[in-house]
C-alpha cells in the first residue's frame, strides 16, 4: 500500500507544476451564507479548472488560506450563495446555472457570487436534446447604455456611438428568471437560430 504522505507529496508536486506552467488564471469571488468572503484562483489543465489557491475572510475578520488537493471540474471549485431564488427546474452545476426544459436546456454562466435577479450581462448556451448547442450573450438595455456611456469616455466603438455583438440578445429586464423567459419564447417560436450562434454538437454538455 502506498503511504498517504507519498500520495500527498505527488499531488502537491503535480499542482505545483500546473501552477508554475500556467499562462492563464481565473479568479473568483464569493460571499457565503455566514458572511464570509472567498477568493479562489484556478488554472486550466486538459479541459478542467484546477483550484490552486483559495482564501476565506470570515465575517469576524479571520483570514484562512489553502491550496486544495482536488481538481475542480464543474461543481467542485466554489460554494454558491443561496440568497437568489432562481428559476424553477434549474440547478447549479459548478459555475453553470442550468435551466432544464422539455427538449432543451439553457446554461447560464453568471459571475461568481452574483445574485441571479441582478444579472445584466451573461454568456449562455441553448443545448437541445439532440446535443446541438447555440451560444449567445444576453445584455439588458440598461447594461448596453452603461457600456456605451463608458465608451464615450474611453473612445471605444467610435466614442460609444454604436454597439455590436455577433450573438448578442438585448432584453428589457435584468435577472436570470426574466432572461430565461425570453429564451424560452425564442426556442418555442424557432427564432433562436437567428439570434444565437451555432456551436455544433455538444459531446458532454457545456464545457
What does this structure look like?
With 207 residues, the protein is an alpha+beta fold. It has two domains: 4-72, no CATH class; 90-201, no CATH class. It contains five helices and twelve strands. The chain has helices at 4-21, 141-154, 156-160, 176-189, 192-195; strands at residues 26-31, 37-45, 48-57, 63-66, 71-72, 90-93, 96-101, 104-109, 121-128, 132-140, 168-171, 197-201. Strands 6, 7, 8, 9, 10, 11 and 12 form a seven-stranded mixed sheet that branches. The longest helix has 18 residues, at 4-21. The radius of gyration is 20 Å and the shape is globular. The protein starts with a helix and ends in a 6-residue tail after the last strand.
The domain tally reads 2
Tell me, rounded to a whole number, the average pLDDT.
Answer: 78
**Overall 3D form:** globular
Count every beta strand, where a strand is a DSSP E run of 2 or more residues. Answer: 12
Task: Provide the structure class.
Answer: alpha+beta
Helix segment count? 5
- H/E element sequence: HEEEEEEEEEEHHEHHE
Cα end-to-end separation = 36 Å
In angstroms, what is the radius of gyration?
Answer: 20 Å
Low-confidence stretches: 67-84
Q: Which percent band covers the strand fraction?
A: 35-45%
| Helix amount | 25-40%
Question: Main β-sheet, in a few words?
Answer: 7 strands, mixed
